[in-house]
Amino acid sequence: MTTLTSPHDLLAAIPFLIGYHPQNSLVLVSLKEDAVGMAMRVDLPTDIASESYDLLASHFVREEAQAALIVAYAHESSVDPESVLINTSAALMRAGIDIKESLIVRNNRFRSMLCSDPTCCPPDGNEIPDLDSSRIAAEHVIAGHPMPFESVDGLVQSIAAVPSSFESGWQDEVQQFWISSDAEEINDLQRDGATAIIDLAGEYREGRGAEDRELVARVIGRMSDIQVRDFALGSHTDETADSYWAMWRDLLRIAPRGFVAPIASLFAALAYERGEGALAQKALDRALHDDDQYSLSLLLRRVFTAGWPPHSFTAMRAELHPKVVAGIFG
Q1: What is the DSSP letter of 44?
Q2: What is the pLDDT of residues 100-153, one digit of tens each?
Q3: Which end of the chain is more exposed for a tag (fewer CB within 10 A), N or C?
């Protein structure tokens, strides 16, 4: 986990933590033993009750955070960010969480609510350093993380459907692998789907990606079955997470209408486990646009909104997987 040693580090880390450069936002970052834990972003609050701030703090209690960093990103026309930061800090302190830093960002400048020394914290703030020159950016790039998007729109476009997903021929190819819940040979079809997932993940590990069109269609189509989907949910390990991440992202972009919800839900779950909460929520938006009653998407929405720690979700998934494997393969 990243260690932050200055306001510059914090401001450089936040776009990586949430996936894009925030605007008109309140961002809270949890700390455990001075290392970064969870990052949470909400729209900059306007005239909300103190109970709502306590709800934000409750997520940090559940995360077992020891301290917090808070940043308000405000436009010129935004509500007074000082009162938002004061109320947020008060709620966190009521919950027993220390405040290590509290910053206001406006017009590419920042100032600290905790520092009163004009030599390092002038009233008009300090200019935000260029992200490319920061230590935090270098560490993330070396670790293989992409640079953050300029806005949430870029984040959304990164998982948007590509034109080929709307082609009728492609829809027909995927449709032939649909699994009907009353199919006589359903267990054979489920095994075929689980095997296809393993095979396609192997293609990604070898760097070939989605080159095998028939195999890709088989995976997307077979994911219509809940057992196959649940098998896919628990298939990745720490060692294979990156290749599965790439696979589900690609399949999410090319899945035809009616087949998006399972893929988007899996991608959302993996994004959440990786600490990319904003991307996870946007993936669920795609899932529910495809099927507004898709049960796994609705469940994940409740889980994410409740602020479950990612490691708790990982443990639940790991516990479920052997049972699903036994059900499919005996």
Answers
A1: P
A2: 999 999 988 999 999 888 888 888 888 988 877 677 766 766 666 677 888 889
A3: C
Sheet holding 109-112, edge to edge: 35-43, 25-32, 67-73, 98-106, 109-112, 126-127
E runs forming strands in the chain: 25-32, 35-43, 67-73, 98-106, 109-112, 126-127
Q: Which long-range contacts (CB under 8 A, 24 or more apart) does 5-10 make?
A: 7/101, 7/103, 7/110, 7/112, 7/126, 8/128, 8/129, 8/134, 9/134, 9/135, 9/136, 10/69, 10/71, 10/101, 10/103
Interacting residues of 249 by C-beta distance below 8 A, sequence separation 6+: 158, 159, 267
| H helical segments located in 1-49 | 7-18
**Residue 175 and residue 200 in contact, taking contact as beta carbons nearer than 8 Å:** no
- Per-residue burial over 283-301, b if 16 or more Cβ lie within 10 Å, else e, is bbbbbbebbeebebbbebb
Beta 98-106 vs 67-73: how paired, if at all?
parallel
Average pLDDT of the chain is 90
User: Is the distance from CB of 152 to CB of 158 less than 8 angstroms?
Assistant: no
pLDDT tens, residue by residue, 156-190: 999 999 999 999 999 999 999 999 999 999 999 99
Q: Which two tokens stand for residue 32?
A: 């455990």
Alpha-carbon gap, residue 216 to 246, rounded angstroms: 13
Q: Using pLDDT thresholds of 50, 70 and 90, give the confidence band for residue 84.
A: very high
User: Structural domains in the chain?
Assistant: 7-151 (3.40.140), 163-329 (no CATH)
Rounded Cα–Cα distance for residues 14 and 73 (Å)? 11
Residue 3 pLDDT greater than 70, yes or no: no
DSSP letter at 30? E
Q: What is the pTM of this model?
A: 0.80
Instruction: With both helix axes pointing from N to C terminus, report the angle between 241-254 and 186-205 in degrees, rounded to the nearest 10.
Output: 110
